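Apologies for my clumsy wording, but are you able to produce some protein sequence, whichever is easiest, and the tokens describing how it folds?
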Amino acid sequence: MTEPLKYSWTRLLPGLVLGAAAFGGAYLVAQLSQSGTTAPAIPAPVADAQPADAQPAEPKQADAKPADAPAGMVWVPGGEFTMGTNDPKAESPEKPAHPVKVDGFWIDATEVTNAEFRKFVDATHYVTMAERPVDWEVMKTQVPPGTPKPAEDQLAPGSLVFTPPAGPVPLDNLANWWSWTKGADWRHPDGPGSSIDGKDGYPVVHVAFDDAVAYAKWAGKRLPTEAEWERAARGGLDGKKYAWGDVFQPDGKRQANTWQGSFPEVAAEDEDGYPRIAPVKSFPANGYGLYDTIGNVWEWCSDWYRNDAYRLNADSGLAVNPKGPDKSYDPAEPFQPKRVTRGGSFLCSSNYCTNYRPSSRHGTATDSGMSHLGFRCARDGGGSK
């Protein structure tokens, strides 16, 4: 996407697509709908390179896999890899490519599912961010000084829901396909009247950062660092454009759940049977045995987000087990705390964005809930606990 310009509260930004704050997203969508304010320019697609060997490469410095595997998790060997990219068509926060080394770790083979999250909620009676009324006293610290308090009905529990248009729409107005929906939450992903009945194997969505952290602690795990996430997502294919090689659809076969057709119009002919979120394990695993690191839903990482984090550390040499900056900063939304989100989602497409790449990174408001935002968990090396 284009570099952010001077901050404007009525200017929708990438942060909204990936998860604006619960109230903030609603306020921005409402403002945009009323004013016709446009979003940033649409990025050009990243062109496919020539076909390359898609077999996982051996890590440069691999550590031994522990014998006792935690249930539902796969081992990612420690070692060095190239994080980020120097592709001239990639977004600036992904640059420059730089060497990173991480210790071996465990990570969930799949995104956390509705069934898994339900077990957590049943055991703890946890209430997610999307199910709570918005606290204006907290929210006003995250918006420009002097922002007026919204109407009380805008502070009701809810979340942002993808609502595809009936036909072609301009791509410079995100309100054409995002709607603040009262009553939308992990149990009701499309708002009141919707449910997750029969969708135990689908990834849980409308999960804010604190919700994901709470689940991880309950499960005896944690969220992966951004470096761990990219190491895992690459599956041993160091420096490749995609998690499976350099060609988006090798032999014409889809490797991940991304948008089919011209975004945001729903394709008349569905190629893979999943016009929106797909059940986990619907597409091939990568070289380390992880499913859906690319596409399906965005995934939370533990790092604070800075759009210039890589550039600030460009001359630091090999980074060992990096954990990100001490605090977040995004000039596009300077008042909003953000954490890193990775992997893209089912909404990513060649005509609108190309975030279905392991190097792609974005910052998402920590209190976000959206219909394409989920997570998976990690655990330090060693056996089950």
In short: The CA atoms of residues 109 and 290 lie 4 Å apart. The chain is about 15% helix and 15% strand.
